[in-house]
Amino acid sequence: MKRWGIFGLLALAACAPESSTRASAQGQVCPGIIAGGMAGAMDVRQGLDDRQPSRMNNDGREPVIIRFRRQGGTQAAHVTASGASFTASTGATVSAVYRSIPAVAARVTPMERYVLERSELVESIEVDQIWSAQGLTPGLFAPLARQAAATLPIPSEYTEGLRLVEAPEVWDADGDGVLDVGAPTGEGVKVCVIDSGLDMGHPEFQGAVVASRDFLDEDDDANDRDGRGQWGQGHGTHVAGIIAARMGQGGSSGPRGTPGGMVGVAPGASLLIARVLDLQGQTQMSVVLSAMEWCDDQGARVVSMSLGGGTATRSTVEAFQALRDHGMLVVAAAGNQGGPVLYPASDPSVLAVGAVDAQERRANFSNAGPALALVAPGVDVLSTFPRGLGAFAEMSVENTSPLSRSLLYSPTGDTSGRLVDCGLGDSLDACLGATCDGFVAYVRPGAVPVDQAMANVMKQGASAVVFGTDDGPAGGAVDIFSLPRSGHWAPAVSVNQAASTMLRERLGADARLSLVPVDYTYVSGTSMAAPYVSGVAALLWSARPELTPQQVRDAMEASARDLGIPGRDFVFGHGLVRARNALQRLP
User: Fold this and answer.
1) What residues contact residue 401 under an 8 Å CB cut-off, 6+ apart?
2) Kind and range of the H or E element at 213?
3) Is residue 527 annotated as a catalytic residue, yes or no?
4) What is the DSSP string of 491-520?
5) To 10 degrees, the CA torsion angle through 358, 131, 305, 270?
6) Where in the chain is the domain with CATH 3.40.50.200?
7) pLDDT, position 139
8) Alpha-carbon distance 339 to 371, whole Å?
């Protein structure tokens, strides 16, 4: 897909020698600096984007779902076939024909819609809604979990989130880092990931993917990139790794990483990859409905959807019920807006998952409400990323090496310079004592969007940026940030509160940043929480293939760690999913 080129950019043009003076108090900027987004550039959309997820295309056609009336006990597939022919006869462009519901997806002009609405064959015409990925949106941030405790040694591939849901206790009971013979690993279970596609060449997925389909380009190559080889957001790769990254098949993990990389909740599960999300992490409801029927055709037991938006319609409710009736459990992200659970997670046939951090506290972005069923790790989650597009960050100031996280989509490279206080980064004179020779900017986030703060301090001469954390619990929290994927940016990291306190005491000292390309990254969002539950469901079905979706769901809900007020509540649902306990609760 588009706009991954920023990883190769160091994002700054050289300052002219005569400009090595402080930017003026009036907010004048260093000459020759290129900083920030590029208006109109790098924003060409492919695949779904050619169909314009904004409501109308250049041809004046609107995307809709057309439902047809059933006659008696007529099967949906038969009704749809005749309805599709009638729809096409009006001149409308039919893009999908469904069999589980009596409906088609089409693009219609106002006149064609007028004709369809007055036909006795047509029951209703629904809006073809826009649904979006539920990882954090660029410019937002959320507190990251504490660092892993340095206590008993653990196998290097076991991430904090993996241990929080007790997955290794199911398939590595003795903790030796080797899958136990005969233990449930997800083997024999197909998990369908409806998302942005996958880096099919990533070492963690070798032997894991059994089928794939690109519903944007309409082919069987579901790589997370466009026809020109440009990578997408990496959202689907991150989600799939949480579910089924393979044991001992690690990619490049940086100077402090491990050769094994990481392992997923269900390392033996088979993956079905359905690419539906476009370059901006968006899709249309009609595309997801097509992907769901494909998952059914491929024999999926679990459908994992880290996307949402819009509202329930008769077509969507029937489609999700059809998957449940066919023996599938649909798991969906609750959403990141801090409000009510989004659709389709709120659908009665779907299991909604919210996010907690490593200390089992609700993530401040995680949606809540009566539809919430479970929570899972969704803050500072380490997982797979398209090869070389993640970044491992190391920082040193004087004789200290504070914990730092690369900003998502930050360019890589080595940078050094004087650590300069740039305050809130909210103006062109925010950096105290800035010069155009280059420096490392220290910024307190929150006053302005991350990309605006970056552009402001870069124009004053910053060659790298550190985002600090002034508030929150001492010792553990870092903030997750994301840069827009288009534009010119400097290498940038965030640090936790303890590191922020230390850096503020060392302003003016020399600082060094090194960002190395890796095959993994940290991301926050309910998008990351949902696949943990999907992986646990795969483990249960691996142990007991005869279970119904309701039995699997009941076991996970009954065995969850109760958080918050006693019993099910709107903030945590039934609680934190736990794989070992769920296995013990099976009927």
Assistant:
1) 394, 395
2) strand 209-214
3) yes
4) -EEEE-HHHHHHHHTTTTSEEEEEEEEESE
5) -130
6) 185-385+524-584
7) 35
8) 12
- At 159, which amino acid appears? T
- Residue with the bigger pLDDT between 3 and 415: it is 415
Is pLDDT at 27 greater than 80 in this prediction? no
Identify the CATH class of 185-385+524-584.
alpha beta
Task: Determine whether 488 is an active site residue.
Answer: no
- Quote the pLDDT of residue 1: 28
Q: How far apart are CA 353 and CA 373, in angstroms?
A: 6
Q: Is 460 exposed, middle or buried (0-12, 13-18, 19+ CB in 10 A)?
A: buried
Q: Is the pLDDT of residue 382 over 70?
A: yes
**Closest to 205 in 3D by CA, of 66, 79, 385, 33:** 385
Determine which one of 100, 214, 235, 514 is catalytic: 235
- 78 in active site: no
Taking the CA atoms of residue 468, residue 474, residue 477 and residue 483 in that order, the dihedral angle to the nearest 10 degrees is -10
Three-state DSSP state, 341: coil
Question: Which pLDDT does position 587 carry in this prediction?
Answer: 85
Predicted confidence band of residue 136 (pLDDT cuts 50, 70, 90): low
Return the pLDDT at 228. 72
CATH class of residue range 47-128 = alpha beta
Q: How far apart are CA 186 and CA 302, in angstroms?
A: 11
Residue entry with tokens 């080595």: 414
What's this model's pTM, rounded to 2 decimal places?
A: 0.87
Query: What are the Cα distances from residue 138, in Å, to 128, 193, 426, 452?
Result: 25, 23, 17, 12
pLDDT tens column, 481-535: 778 877 899 999 988 888 899 999 999 999 999 999 999 988 889 999 999 999 9
Where in the sequence of the chain do the CATH 3.50.30.30 domains occur?
4-43+389-518
pLDDT digits (tens, 9 = 90+) for 402-430: 888 888 888 999 999 999 999 999 999 99
By the 10 Å C-beta count (0-12 exposed, 13-18 middle, 19+ buried), 454 is classed as buried
Contacts of 309 (CB under 8 A, 6+ apart): 129, 130, 131, 132, 342, 343
Q: Which residues lie below 8 Å from residue 437, measured CB to CB, with a gap of 6+?
A: 15, 20, 417, 461
The partner residues of 90 in beta bridges, in order of sequence, read none
What the block records as the tokens of 258 is 């491990």
| CA–centroid distance for 199 within its chain | 14
DSSP 262-287: ---SSTTPEEEEEE---TTSEEEHHH
Does the structure show a pLDDT above 60 at 4?
Answer: no
Q: Which is catalytic among the residues 128, 172, 195, 347?
A: 195
Look up the CATH number of domain 4-43+389-518: 3.50.30.30
Question: 553-582 burial, b if ≥16 CB within 10 A, otherwise e?
Answer: bbbbbebbbebbeeebbbebbbbbbbbbbb
Catalytic residue (one of 304, 315, 463, 527) = 527
pLDDT digits (tens, 9 = 90+) for 290-307: 999 999 999 999 999 999
Residues of the chain with CATH 3.30.70.80: 47-128
The label of the residue with tokens 């998302």 reads 195
